[in-house]
Amino acid sequence: MSIPDSLEYVDPFVASFESDDMLVLRWNQHLLNLCYDVRRVFAFYEKLNAILHGGGFRTMVSLGSDIKPGFAESATFLHNVLQAKDSAKFIERFFNLVNTYVLTLSSLNAVTIHADHGNVSLFALNVSLAYDYRIVAQDTVFENSNAEVGLISKGGGAYFMSRLLGVRKAAEVLQWSAFSAEEALQLGLVDRIVPRKDLEQEALEMAKAQSLRPTSMLLGLRKLLKCDPQELKRNLELENQLILGRVSTPDFKKAFTECCAAKGIVFPD
Length: 269
What we know:
alpha/beta, seven-stranded mixed beta sheet, 51% helix, 16% strand
């Protein structure tokens, strides 16, 4: 199986393709870019919901975007949040998008696989932990730019990592500024490392292999061992509170301003 060069575009943010029992999603932009327009948020919800619940697929492959937002893009979003009169609304839209997607993934009646490469943010890794399997390219580096300003990353990472690694190790990893694909594999945060050129095909082959066997056991184990929907929801809501509480403090604003200045990031007055 190969992915068409031109996928059916749901939105500028994600393209989709369905064949046999497999759904493929290719992400094109970061969810942060949605949050400035509430109409786009609701349109995105409707379209993504239609994709995830409209078909009879048994496996889903998610391909990370080739465009990776770095610290500058995230910093711009935070700057806009801090400058807005009703600053909370932008970040709350982002929270709602992420929470909805993570909760949907955790209860999806299909085996899910995420493939990514390059400089991957801790936020993206956190969300990927809601998938059943993760494949990354050899060039993958996981980066936590929030560590420099004392801000936890969104996405359910603490919830999922504590189950994979134990509470003590999860707390350590979530404070790292960066770590390699090999380190992630040793920890069990990813399942396979492959050459960049083989990434998409490896993900498709894994999905195909999963579709040839009964999936009920894996989906049942996901519920038993990995995900309690109510507990996950509470954890995601607590993330919201902790992040909002941190970004509203003078200490955060000072640390954020100093970090941006050290990286040569200047915002217009």
